Structure formats: C-alpha cells, structure tokens
Here is the input.
Amino acid sequence: MGVRLYWVVFAIIVAGAIGLRAFWTYALQLPFVTSDSPSYLRPLAEHWWLPISARRTAGLPFLISISLQAFRHPVGILIVNNMLAIGSGILLAIAIRNVLRQNLLSLIALFVVTFTSKDLAQEYLLMTEHCSRVLFIVYAALMLWVFQNPRRYWLAALVGLITALNILVKPDAIVLIVATLLAFAAAFGVLAKRRRDFAIAAAIFLLTTIVPLLVYMAEFKRQFGTFDLTQAGGRNQFSHVGHLILLDGGKHPELKARLKPLIEPYKRDYADKRDYQPNWLINGTATPALKNDFGDSNPKDEVLEYVRSRYPEFTDRWIDEVYGDLAREAMMTHPVEFLRYATERGAYLWQRGYSFVYYEIFPTHAHFDQHRSDRSFMRNRMYRLYGEDEPPCGPEARPPGKAAGPLAAVFSKEILLCSPLPYDDQAVVNAAKRVGAAYELVTAPFAAVFGYIPRAGAAAAILGALLLLFRSSTGAGTYAFGLLLCLVVLGYTMLHGLINVAEASRMVSNVQDFVILASLCFIFSLGCMLRDLARRRVPG
Here is the structure.
C-alpha cells in the first residue's frame, strides 16, 4: 500500500470515528449509567485529587474528576472517553505501521479499536471497562516501541506507569505484570546481543509499576486499615465460589449455621446445574426462580447481620474479611473441584462474552427513553450522596449545599432542572436514526466475520509456527506481537476463571480487542511467511 493511500484511508477512518462520537456526545450529553455507576462518583465527595474508597480503586474516579474539572459539565466525561478511544487507536495504528511495517494491519487495527460496537457502548457507560480497555491498547502500542529499541528506557518506565494506572482502574490488569515480565524474559533468551538492555528495561518496568501501587496501598492502609487496593476482593471471590463453601466446621460456625439452609439447596438446585447466581450470593438480587425458592432470604443478609452483631465496626473491611474467609476456605477444602470449576468458567468467559455488540447495537435512538431514566436515577443518587432529599425538577431546584469541587459540575441544568436534552428535539432523533443506519452499514462486513476471526487466527498461528521452523524471518515480529497479546488474554482468562466471571460479555470488554488483534497478527504474519517462501522458490 502506497504512503499517500495509507494516509488517505487513515484520515477517513479517524474522521469517521470523530464524527460518529461528536454526534452521540452532542445528542446524549450525559453518560448512560448502571446501578454501580454512582459508586465511582462517591469518592470524589471526599478527595477529588486522590479519590480512594474501600470498594473502588481510584483510577476511574480520578479520570472523572479530571473530566469534570476540565469541562464543568458531565459531558466532559464523554468527551474525555472519546478522546481516549480515538487517541489510543491512532497510537496503536502508528506503532504497528512504524514497528511492524504492516500498513494494512495498521488500518484494520485502527478500525477495530474505534468502530467495534461493544467498545463504543462501553465508551458511553459510566463504568471502568472503557478506561481499562484504552489502557490495554496504549500498553500494546508502547510495548511495540519498547521491543523495537529496549534502550529507550523511558518507554519501559511509561509502560510501567500505564500498567499501574490500569490496575488502579480495574485490578484484573495485574496480568500485565506477569505477561510483560515473561515477554522480557523471552526476549532475553532469544536476543543474546541485547540481553543487558532487556534486563534493565524489565527492572525499570517493574519498578515503575510496583512503586506507585505500594504508595497507593500504604495510603489505603492509612485510611481503611488494610494494606490492599480494595476491600472488595473477598466479596467478589465469595460470589464466585459461594456454592463450594465448607458448611460444617472451620471458621465462622455460627454464620455457617445460618447459611446452610440457603447454600445447600442453592448448590443442589442451581450450581450443580451450572446455573450460578453470583448477584444473589453477594447482593441479594433474586430471579423469579430464586424468589420462589428462597423468598426474601439470601446469603448477603446473613453475612451482613453476622458482621453487624459480631465485629467492632460494620464496615467494608470486616464484611470483606468474612467473605474472604469463607471463599478461601472453600477453595482450600475443595481444590480439585475448584480448579475444575475455574477451568469451566474461564472457557465460559469467552463462549458467552466474545461478541461484536454489547448485547445489542448501542447507543442508538432506541435507548433515548432509557437515558431519561438513567438521568432520573443519577439525580436521585447524587442528592442521596449528600444526605438530601431529591427536590422536584424546576427552577426552584438547588444543588446540595455540601456539593463542591468536581462533583458540583454534575449538577448541570440537565440534571438539576431536568432540562430538555438535544435528543428531545425530533430533528435530532431523526438524525440519530440516520447515523445508526450508516454505522450499521459500515460495520456490517466486519460484524459478519467477527465470530470467525479467532478461528482463522488460531489456524494461522499453528501454520505460522510450523513455517517459523524453516527459519522464515519475514513476519516473525508480527507473529511475536500476536503471541504477546495472546499471553495477556490467557492470563486474563485464567485470573477470571479463578476469581470471578459474573457478566461474561462485560468482563471480556477490557481485552476483547487483543483477541481480534492477535488473530489478525497471525493471519498477516502467515501471509508474509508464505510470500517469503514463494519468492525463494522463484528462480532469479
């Protein structure tokens, strides 16, 4: 592909990505929310510059803080998300072009990162997945430059800082530490002339990753009493292995006596049939079937009542400790069953999670009513955060008296007064229909082959490995980059199989791009190898 054609296509993709996001950000103004979204805003009420909370790491709240301070309106959250999405895509595309010399792969990667429907959906939700996904993409781009020239130690330091930030956004990014060190170890073993450079780069990466995390954990201990990143690990682990807990003997016998009438039938009638209900275990959320079988009873209420009556404080620290005790005991008591279960859940993560869309195409005009409900939900939660009743919408409404700092910017007229949003104009609704139709038309070919990409990539990886035995160097760098991405995905899968799967489609959002990009790397690498072999066979 010629240089001029490359940059023309590059500009078209970037312009399309910007235009798509400009429309939706203008039309929506406010992010879509879930029941978890307010918990990322709550820490800002205490410390806008270091918003640490017991359950949430500070990465996303800090990004929200920056967004609100910069734009003084909730739309700033969407604008910053848009900038991160497009910027990370551009960074990765340029890295692939400059390091791997794969122009077509570079353009496809740019399209994948900026136009995949699931990625776009997470961009407009007030959750951690989008920020974490972007940091994974930035990590991949930086690693290409690090391996191109490991003596640029500042890049290794930047990778470490990006990894630390990603862990503070979503702690499952801890897999990047292991994957990166393994990648450096492989380079150390293969590239003998540069061993010293890779050893120093690895040390710098590890130092710049670990030190910020240790500082954060020390501050966390000062505020909440435990040297950790969050006091939600035990809770999450119990949601994963609650059906395996030891009900006779061991720790917390009084609590187990209360849980036994719940866990035994749950294991028999649900978990043994692979119908796992993690939200019922830790949140008390009941499906109609659970409601019919257990009424209003659930393990969460029993655990909370036990902590309230037996511990000096009713805080996340002690709640998480009890959940953690039960979960760790379950895993140690049933190690074989737990590992079998973890393997099954790791496979389930991708069987159910990998998809072009996040349940459906999103955002579209069809979700405008949901967005109005989300605004009402957020308004109610924000007033409750400050201990005030939600006032009626209208000119008399006032923000809470204690609202200050970045969170004061949340009380824009769209939330405070329930003012009309752009999509309340029928012309904008009609435009949304046209934009949605154009998006689906453009992405239809990609969506049609989406499910086959990993299969094609796996086949190309096997054939490419065989060809590498013939010492074909062409495409080896692209193949190695694919292996790095696969290493991250493998570690991420193993981690979630062991600790928590929950909502599979959402859980794979962070690294789903890596599956597609790794597959494409193997396909392009195989093409280079076959072309190299063909040229060797042609005389002259």
